[in-house]
Amino acid sequence: MCGIAGTVSLGHTSVHAPYAPAACAAMAHRGPDETGSFATAEAALAMCRLKVIGLHDGSQPVFSDDGTVVCVLNGEIYNHQELRAFLAARGRPVRGGSDAQILPHLYQELGERFVERLHGMFAVALYDTRAGRLLLATDRVGKKPLFYAVPDGGGVAFASELPALMLHPGISRDTDPVAVDQYLSYRVVPAPHTIYRQVRRLEPATVLVLERGRPERRRTYWQFAFTAELTDTPEQEIDDRIDALLQQAVHDRLESEVPLGAMLSGGLDSSLVVAMATRQLGRPIHTFSVGFENEAFDESVYARAVAEHCGTRHHVYRIGAPDAKEAVDTILSHMGEPYAFPSAIAASCMYKLARQHVTVVLTGDGSDEIFCGYGRYRRLRDLRGGGDLADRYESVLVDGVPGPLKNRLYAAGFADRIPGHPHNYLRARFGRTDPAVPDLDRAMQVDSGFWLSDAQLVKIDRMSMAHSVEPRSPLLDHRLIDYVTRIPAARKLIGAHEKAPLKRVAARYLPRQILERRKQELAVPLESWLGAELRTTISDTLLSEASLERGYFDPDALRSLVHEARPEHSYALWTLYMLERWHQLNENSEARETAAVAHV
Questions:
Q1: Which of 51, 280, 294, 447 stands 20 to 30 A from 485 (CA)?
Q2: Phi, psi of 194 (to 5 degrees)
Q3: For every one of its 600 residues, what pLDDT tens digit does the chain have, with 9 covering 90 and above?
Q4: E strands, 228-375, where?
Q5: Which residues lie below 8 Å from residue 36, measured CB to CB, with a gap of 6+?
């Protein structure tokens, strides 16, 4: 696991040489064990490495044998041994033990389509010095991030994290009104947008090719395809196939030369992953969970029950409001843009705890989008009447600042800067789904290409990497996804029971009390915190002079919302607070970051 960064001139002015190493220094938390770099007048690539595989011979950047192809990798390639054998059979033996070392050779053998042979989580930057070609690529579901921009003067700059990219002096910090509008609805900024007008985030399963004197080429090489075709396949056959695919996915993610553990919330998904992992390893592993004083949010008793069942060495961190207050700046600093999922507080605390014992963890993330696990799917199914699917799903999805409240808050001048306002951003996404497929399957497809990568996986990557921990998610194995997305939603959500096939598989591994308990998403007692410990902090922030003069909101409307502090507006207030707090942190850091690059 690494942080990667670089800049390529693409025939324009020379690259800003200090940028790449400075960006990696800013991402030292992603790779505290080793750094490496490559630089010419036309290109500069750098990386900071968290050592997991190839501890002594896995340095980056990696090169082709003839030195014409240079590559940096953030992530893990789980089938690297298989690909080594493939390359050796083609007369391209690969030296060294790390997974990254196969990439230049695979590119030379297969060209730009080499990415399609990779199984794992990755963001790749590969520079072909002979062709003057930069290739940027992301994994199928978007586990590993990659941000990029065309700086003033031309060329391209990229980095694993947004704050690192913003160290480049040729990139403007002007915010994007469309990104702000989307953030307020969904509590995240969906790719390809970022909060900055000039910067983009590469979407999942995407290859972006940039060459001297040619227009950019962009290709999507894989997608979630919810076909709902397995209508008549026997239940036993479905369960056996899911079981086998998930076992293989867990097995592939157990390779590590450093200590490995698992996150264990006590819910179905993480419990099943832990049960499978401990069976395969045949030894205890460390597991980690969080707990709360508020019993309505506390799952630690269930996590401990699974830990006892599986024989793990279990660790629990109990979270209070002071942790939340402390975590806010950590979350926003690593996100580099507004992000308002309070569950990031719990995630940060869990990964901080895990780092005390291990470097790699398995997680149970990713099943809700493919097994119909969210409560909103049931609400969508049960909505009365017809109408446009995008509008119906928007009504059950948006829980940041709902449209009517957003319209009440917006300053007239700001609303005018948002094309087509008010705008349902889901409509274009639903337009890319098959209208012949049932609504629930279409909603899961939209979530898998949006909610999963932009909300859940962003949280997992940034909070784990903030504490130098590598997360691995077996339920996001693309081979498992390819099969499960063929199962109709009606066979996953049965009455009030979600994830029916996965529960049947889990019954082979877990005690009944875990299977029969009410589903509980990783959450924090936000409403009680807002009504007590955090209320003054949030009020002072939102009603500060800088906030009221920001230009997004009508000052009187914002004052009214803050003073009313209605319980039903808890998530709206949190969303607004995280936006303004991000602005404050961003403004405080801008001068320091610019000075840091100029000094290098």
A1: 280
A2: -130, 175
A3: 689 999 999 988 788 889 999 999 999 999 999 999 999 999 999 999 999 988 888 889 999 999 999 999 999 999 999 999 999 999 999 988 889 999 999 999 999 999 999 999 999 999 999 999 999 999 999 999 999 999 998 899 999 999 999 999 999 999 999 999 999 999 999 999 999 999 999 999 999 999 987 878 999 999 999 999 999 999 999 999 999 999 999 999 999 999 999 999 989 999 999 999 999 999 999 999 998 877 677 778 889 999 999 999 999 999 887 888 888 999 999 999 999 998 899 999 999 999 999 999 999 999 999 999 999 999 999 997 778 999 999 999 988 999 999 999 999 899 999 998 888 999 999 999 999 999 999 999 999 999 999 999 999 999 999 999 999 999 999 999 999 999 999 999 999 999 999 999 999 999 888 887 766 555 666 666 666 667 888 999 999 999 999 999 999 999 999 999 888 888 999 999 999 999 999 887 665 555 554 554
A4: 260-263, 286-292, 313-319, 360-362
A5: 46, 47, 49, 59, 60, 61, 72
CA-to-CA distance for 505 and 458, rounded, in angstroms? 28
CB 53 within 8 A of CB 76: yes
H helix or E strand, kind and range, residue 185: helix 177-186
Rg (Cα) of the chain, in Å, rounded?
Answer: 24
Q: Which residues pair with 35 in a beta bridge?
A: 48
Q: Can you tell me whether residue 328 is helix, strand or coil? A: helix
Query: If DSSP codes are grouped into helix, strand and coil, which group holds residue 399?
Result: coil
Which DSSP letter does residue 14 get?
P
Distance CA(16)–CA(173), nearest Å, equals 18
SS3 of 279, please?
helix
How far apart are the C-alpha atoms of 473 and 246, rounded to whole Å?
10
3-state secondary structure 114-176: HHHHCCEEEEEEEEECCCCEEEEEECCCCCCCCEEECCCCCCEEEECCHHHHCCCCCCCCCEC
H or E element, residue 531: helix 526-531
Distance between CA 257 and CA 242 in Å, rounded?
28
Supply φ then ψ for residue 207, to 5 degrees: -115, 125
Number of C-beta neighbours around residue 49 at 10 A: 26
Residue 471 φ then ψ, to 5°: -95, 145
Q: Which residues are CB-contacts of 553 (< 8 A; sequence separation ≥ 6)?
A: 409, 410, 411, 414, 576
For helices 570-599 and 177-186, what crossing angle results, to 10°?
A: 140
C-beta atoms surrounding 59 within 10 Å: 17
Residues 6+ apart with CB under 8 A from 338: 183, 189, 195, 332, 575, 578, 579, 582
